[in-house]
C-alpha cells in the first residue's frame, strides 16, 4: 500500500465518526438517478452500466427486506421506525417495477438488433445478467448469443471481447456466463474452454490475464467460469489460490488486486467472490470486522449516496455494485449460484 493512501485512510478515520450500516434508501436514490440518466444516454457501454446499477439496486431491496423482517420479529422497534423501513422498501420496489419494462426493452433491442461488430462481449454479459435478474426468459436470446459467441471463439478455447479484440480470463468468463444462462454450454464452442482457463493459473497462486502476474479480478473470473463448467481443482491448486486470495486484505481491512497495491472497494467482490467459490468456509480467514469497517466507512460517502473506491473518490455504479456485492458475500447474503454469476435473484 502506498504511503499516500495509508495516510489518507488514517486521517479519514481520525476525523470521521464510524458508521455501522449502509444507508440503503440513499443508495437506492443514487441508483435511481443513474437509471434515469441511462434511459436518456447513448453511451456504448449502456448494457454494462445498467447491470452495474441493477445489481446493487436489487441487493439493496433485499437488505431492506431483511431489515423489515428483523423489525417485525424484534421487540426493539417502534411504529415510526417500522413505517419508515416499509416506506423505503415500497418505494424501491415501485421504482423497480416502473423501470423494468424500459430496461427489458432497451437491453433486448440492443442485444438482438445491434450490428454485431459494434457489440462487446461485456455488454452482452451485462445484458443477459440484467434480463435474468428481471425474470426475463433469456433462452429467447440463445440464437443471437450462439451466433455472437461463435464469431468470438478462439482456437485455444478463449473468447474475444469483439472480433478484433483481446481474449483473456475476463472475456472468457463472460462467454461462459452467457452460455450458462442461455443453455449453450454443451455447444462445441466451449470444448476447449476448460483447458484454456486452467492454463492461466500462476505458480504464485491466482490466475493471470495474458501475462505472468496473477490478479484478483482474473482469479474470480477464472474460478467462477471453471465452477460453472464443473471443473474441480486439486488440493495443491486450491491451497495456492487460497494463500494468494487471503493475502489480499490490507491492514485497513480493504482488499487489493495484487501485492503491494492500494485497497480498492471493487476488490471486495473479486477477492471475496473468488474465496467463496474456492471454499466458502475459508471466508473466515478474512478479518470480517475489519473488512466491514472499511466497506461501511471508507467506501460510503458522508451522505450515503452510492459507494466508492476509497475516501476522496466520487461514488459510481461500478463500485456500488462490487462493494455491496462483496459485503453481501462475507455477510452470507448471496448463495453459491449468485456469487458465480454475479446476480441477485
Automatic annotation (TrEMBL):
<dbReference type="InterPro" id="IPR001330">
    <property type="entry name" value="Prenyltrans"/>
</dbReference>
<keyword id="KW-0677">Repeat</keyword>
<keyword id="KW-0862">Zinc</keyword>
<keyword id="KW-0637">Prenyltransferase</keyword>
<dbReference type="InterPro" id="IPR008930">
    <property type="entry name" value="Terpenoid_cyclase/PrenylTrfase"/>
</dbReference>
<keyword id="KW-0808">Transferase</keyword>
<keyword id="KW-0479">Metal-binding</keyword>
<feature type="domain" description="Prenyltransferase alpha-alpha toroid">
    <location>
        <begin position="93"/>
        <end position="331"/>
    </location>
</feature>
<protein>
    <recommendedName>
        <fullName>Geranylgeranyl transferase type II subunit beta</fullName>
    </recommendedName>
</protein>
<dbReference type="GO" id="GO:0008318">
    <property type="term" value="F:protein prenyltransferase activity"/>
</dbReference>
<dbReference type="GO" id="GO:0046872">
    <property type="term" value="F:metal ion binding"/>
</dbReference>
<dbReference type="Pfam" id="PF00432">
    <property type="entry name" value="Prenyltrans"/>
</dbReference>
<dbReference type="InterPro" id="IPR045089">
    <property type="entry name" value="PGGT1B-like"/>
</dbReference>
<comment type="similarity">
    <text>Belongs to the protein prenyltransferase subunit beta family.</text>
</comment>
